[in-house]
């Protein structure tokens, strides 16, 4: 079950959400997504206390379905406007204001909301869960304001949206620099115990490659890519392949709108193996320009051309890409 809380949204935006949910096909059931979605609309022109109560209403509805044995997700959009209603009520109530006028209890209010997420065993013996996804919209993009900093203290992961990625039409525009997950080690151990012992190593390599590519991109803007040594140019190439072939995703594509864990692992393995092959060929004396001019389009297109769970098609692209790189002279 999905519970969407529109807290402080404009009325026309809520109408668009309802219309879109009615058009989207549910991949699980084949019906409409709106059939298993609860929408709680507290628009910006509604009373202040309605906005204050909206997220509590949403999480309570989710817990109702969770206790029935469902896995539920609460999307609170946005907790910033919910916090603004807390500030407004606190000011009218004559409470002593804290940082930026928010009530001194803001941190505990945020904690009380997010701590209601979790996995439970119901009285009927079923295993069910509630997942909370809170959208934070800091004014002016200020990541140091109280709602943002308070939220980051309690959540287990953060998806930081990047304006530059959105302007360059890279979707989803999730920044790999500012995002984090506190459960990466636990996920790595779980993956290792369930047949994928290389998960943590692949993730660490991808993060290191993206960080190094970002550093070299800034340098290349000053001195030019052609002035960099061959192995650093291969790092830049690897960063582009990771961004375009793994991190991008087309929600409107039947193949790319959903990706199984096995296909995701195959895509990441494909890019990392291609980067290793490029580095090896450069060490053997092959010119970096020759590799950069090679057709690596199939590596980027694999995520859209292979089916949602077709990891074997990705592995076939890997074999052909590595053979092509070995044949370069």
Give a short summary of the structure.
This protein is of the alpha/beta class and 329 residues long. The chain is built from 13 helices and 7 strands.
How would you describe the overall organization of this protein?
This protein is an alpha/beta fold and 329 residues long. The chain has 2 domains: 2-155, Rossmann fold, CATH 3.40.50.300; 192-327, Bovine Mitochondrial F1-atpase, Atp Synthase Beta Chain, Chain D, domain 3 (Bovine Mitochondrial F1-ATPase, ATP Synthase Beta Chain, Chain D, domain3), CATH 1.10.1140. Helix content is 53%, strand content 11%. It contains 13 helices and 7 strands. It has helices at 11-23, 48-66, 79-92, 106-114, 146-154, 163-167, 184-193, 199-223, 230-247, 261-283, 288-292, 297-305, 311-327; strands at 2-7, 37-42, 71-77, 118-121, 127-135, 157-158, 180-181. The strands form 2 sheets. Strands 2-1-3-5-4 form a 5-stranded mixed sheet, with helices on both faces. Helix 8 packs across helix 10. The longest helix is centred in the middle third of the chain and has 25 residues, at 199-223. The model has no long low-confidence stretch (mean pLDDT 92).
């Amino acid at each position: 079950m999905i519970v969407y809380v529109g807290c402080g949204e404009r009325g026309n935006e809520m109408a668009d959400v309802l219309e879109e949910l009615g058009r989207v096909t549910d991949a699980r059931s084949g019906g409409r997504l709106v059939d298993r979605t609860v929408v709680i609309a507290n628009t910006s022109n509604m009373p202040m206390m309605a906005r204050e109560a909206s997220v509590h209403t949403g999480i309570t509805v989710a817990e109702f379905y969770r206790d029935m044995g469902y896995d539920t997700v609460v999307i609170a959009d946005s907790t910033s406007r919910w916090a603004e209603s807390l500030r407004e009520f606190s000011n009218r109530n004559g409470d002593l204001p804290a940082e930026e006028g928010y009530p001194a209890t803001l941190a505990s209010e945020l904690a009380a909301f997010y701590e209601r997420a979790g996995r439970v065993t119901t009285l009927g013996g079923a295993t069910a869960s509630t997942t909370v996804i809170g959208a934070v919209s800091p004014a002016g993009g200020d990541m140091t304001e109280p709602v943002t900093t308070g939220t980051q203290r309690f959540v287990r992961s953060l998806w930081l949206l990047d304006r530059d990625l959105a302007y360059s039409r890279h979707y989803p525009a999730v920044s790999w620099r500012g995002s984090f997950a506190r459960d990466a080690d636990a996920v790595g151990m779980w993956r290792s115990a369930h047949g994928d012992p290389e998960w943590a190593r692949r993730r660490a390599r991808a993060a290191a490659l993206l960080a190094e590519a970002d550093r070299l991109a800034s340098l290349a803007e000053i001195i030019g890519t052609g002035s960099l040594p061959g192995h650093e140019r291969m790092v830049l190439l690897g960063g582009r392949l990771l961004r375009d072939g793994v991190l991008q995703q087309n929600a409107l594509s039947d193949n790319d709108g959903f990706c199984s864990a096995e296909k995701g692992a195959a895509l990441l393995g494909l890019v990392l193996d291609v980067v290793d092959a490029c580095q090896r060929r450069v060490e053997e004396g092959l010119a970096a320009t020759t590799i950069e001019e090679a057709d690596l389009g199939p590596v980027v297109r694999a995520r859209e051309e292979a089916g949602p769970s077709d990891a074997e098609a990705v592995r076939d692209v890997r074999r052909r890409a590595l053979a092509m790189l070995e044949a370069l002279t």
